[in-house]
């Protein structure tokens, strides 16, 4: 859609981005392309036509690259340039070191996406060679074409939130891994235990009883039966209280006691598997304890940024869920539009239009998988508590034409959540259900009414 000037909103956003990039990559500056590695750094100095002015290999760590930057600046001045713009790929941690060194010297610094370098490498020649020399030149060439971006500014609080988010993701993976391992092992040696509760790993009673069996009784089911049900119940009750609950569920406890008599399972592996499950339960408890501590630090960081009240004004969005999203995006005010956040998450539709042909739109799937996952998890908490999202979900999954599957509808809501989170933070105004509902169709508004 265009306005009276014939320029669309997308055109204006792209033009503004190019202006910002041109300020960082002026024609008066030479371009320094750097292919970073552990102990070998390839540095090339190029002009804006990708002609190599100088090339040198520095065998040093990233923190010793100051000498390389000074050498590149000197070579650029000898060729008639006022200064240099440094470019590299944002892989590993070394690019952050290089960013600090360039900031100390007042040099503009940009990054080139590794995917862009890969595509450019394929179009370079038919061999698709990958060498440090060619990669450094490709990085400089893409920078000259403004196919680069300005990295996120360094901020202590936002940086801490990003690292906390990464740590939480690791703990969630460990949490899920422990559950899957215990489930697989029990299906092998004691499948009856998994049928004693509808959702066993969500039941405090079931987990407490399993811990008593595996750790206190050493996984010896015969010993547990010999000691009697009363003693078993006392131990499980004490474990339940230790986990913060008042009393166990006797129905699950009775079913577990009856499952002790079930002979199904590979008995030859039972002793070893029970010992292993005991260790996994320790890892699981440690992961959950550490996760709770990290999530508390994340909410504290959100308070320091002054965003807690704003983000939690979205019904159903918890402080932890919002912090997990912001840990992946960084400061949302640096994005020019809400659609940019959706693209970063890979939730933007990939259109297929050519002439009269209109293909089926699919999600791009590009961007940050961690952001996509964080938005997806946040939607699960919003659906039961947010009437606007629940209405939208019901409409998408029950309409007559183009009815979506539940997972597809949740993906649509995840993109909507990111857009509205951007609007809330950039405007500084709390989420308003009436404003959010205005984006619905008349059929969807009928659900709300």
List the helices and strands and how they pair.
Elements: H1 9-24, E1 29-35, E2 41-46, E3 52-58, H2 66-78, E4 83-88, H3 94-104, E5 109-111, H4 114-124, H5 132-144, H6 156-189, H7 204-216, H8 221-227, H9 229-242, H10 250-259, H11 270-304, H12 308-311, H13 319-329, H14 338-345, E6 349-350, E7 353-354, E8 357-358, E9 362-363, H15 369-382, H16 387-398, H17 406-427, H18 433-437, H19 442-448
Parallel strand pairs: 1-4, 4-5
Antiparallel strand pairs: 1-2, 2-3, 6-9, 7-8
Write out the strand line-up for the largest beta sheet, numbering strands in chain order.
3-2-1-4-5
Shape: globular
The number of E-state strands comes to: 9
User: Runs with pLDDT <50, length 5+?
Assistant: 441-449
H and E order: HEEEHEHEHHHHHHHHHHHEEEEHHHHH
**Which bin fits the share of residues in helices?**
55-70%
By DSSP (H or I, 4+ residues per run), the number of helices equals 19
pLDDT averaged over residues: 89
- End-to-end gap: 31 Å
Class computed from helices, strands and strand pairing:
alpha/beta
Radius of gyration: 28 Å
Number of separate structural domains: 3
